[in-house]
Design a protein that fits this description.
Layout (H helix, E strand, L loop, with lengths): L2 H7 L1 E3 L7 E2 H18 L7 E7 L3 H16 L3 E9 L6 H14 L4 E5 H5 L3 H7 L4 H19 L4 E3 L4 H13 L3 H4 L5 E2 L34 E2 L7 H10 L16 H15 L3 H19 L6 E2 L6 E2 L5 H13 L1
Helix pairs in contact: 2-10, 3-10, 8-11, 8-12
Length: about 325
């Protein structure tokens, strides 16, 4: 049976280009897209101590599954999974089980860190104590822990499961809120490598010199983050995850519906349904100006939190500011 016949008879997806793909050829197409993204943007070196941020959801398990294949082809790429347990009852406890099952089956070391152990209180209780937007508060602590623990574990890079939809949403959110300086931090390779006495230097998307020095890791404030599924649509990662039996069902955080991102997501999905290729168009046009944005916002100086020593815009990082507020609220 030719590719055309098998794909026409049993299609699982029709990409924006319009070519039908059966399950077998879709998985080949998807994996090739990820590997091409890694190559095009120089995301992974020949030797890496790679951290992979997972949640137990479709995107992160898809990412870990594909990177595990890459690691088997090149044993010099060591993989370690890292999961942040925010403390969201009825959601995170379910995805942790899925993540543990996957990592155990594939013999991948999994490190789990919780808000409750690290900050003394889970997210559910934080939100009862403070009048704060769930995703804003959660994002601050999540990013803080991922970076801090990645440094402690000596990761050369941290791979995340951010897909095309995620990037598209972030681009528009920053446009709507006039946060171009935040857009400068987007792209397939993000984060800033910086020593305490140096100015921040934004990385270009084609920079080949992003390896961290593990011997000096304690002096580096940002572990380089990469997004190998950057050009893959959320629909594609969902189909790939279920086609490979990576999870049994989709579980979404119940706080998502309260977020600004959810409104932008729904708007984009509506546009994509009416005008296929909209999301790809937004991200590809953004990549065309990303280097200009990076150069425009590359002159800031690094500040460090006087409490924890992590990077901060002023004398305290947002995580420590919120911890102080939470302690006062629960006293």
């Amino acid at each position: 049976m030719t590719k055309m016949n098998c794909c026409n008879q049993n299609p699982v997806i029709i990409p924006p280009a319009g070519e039908k793909l059966c399950k077998m050829h879709f998985m080949e197409y998807f994996e090739n897209k990820v590997f091409k993204t890694i190559t095009k943007f120089n995301l992974i070196e020949k030797k890496e101590n790679m951290g992979v941020a997972i949640s137990g959801g479709k995107d992160s398990l898809t990412l870990l599954h594909i990177l595990n294949k890459l690691s088997k082809q090149n044993p010099k790429i060591k993989l370690t999974a890292i999961l942040i347990d925010e403390g969201i009852k009825g959601y995170r406890d379910k995805t942790i089980k899925t993540a543990k099952k996957f990592c155990s089956k594939n013999k991948i070391k999994l490190n789990i860190y919780s808000y409750e152990k690290e900050f003394g209180i889970p997210l559910d209780k934080m939100l009862k104590a403070l009048n704060a937007k769930p995703c804003t508060l959660c994002g601050i602590f999540r990013r803080y822990l991922l970076n801090k623990k990645s440094k402690e574990l000596g990761f050369t890079k941290l791979a995340t499961g951010h897909n095309l939809d995620d990037e598209c949403q972030s681009i528009l959110m920053n446009q709507f809120k006039n946060n171009l300086h935040l857009s400068a931090r987007l792209g397939p390779m993000v984060g800033i490598n910086n020593n305490k006495n140096n100015s921040i230097k934004n990385n270009t998307i084609n920079n080949k010199n992003n390896k961290l020095n593990n011997d000096n890791n304690s002096n580096i404030n940002f572990v380089q983050r990469i997004k190998p599924v950057y050009l893959c649509a959320e629909k594609e990662t969902t189909i790939y995850a279920f086609s490979n039996n990576l999870l049994d069902s989709l579980t979404e955080c119940h706080y998502v519906s309260e977020s600004y991102r959810a409104q932008v997501r729904n708007m984009l999905n509506d546009f994509e349904a009416k005008f296929p290729g909209t999301k790809h168009g937004i991200v590809n046009s953004f990549l065309g100006i990303l280097q200009d944005l990076k150069e425009r916002f590359s002159n800031g100086k690094a500040n460090f939190c006087k409490i924890c020593g992590e990077a901060a815009a002023r004398d305290k990082c947002n995580a420590c500011k919120y911890i102080e507020k939470i302690k006062k609220a629960v006293e």
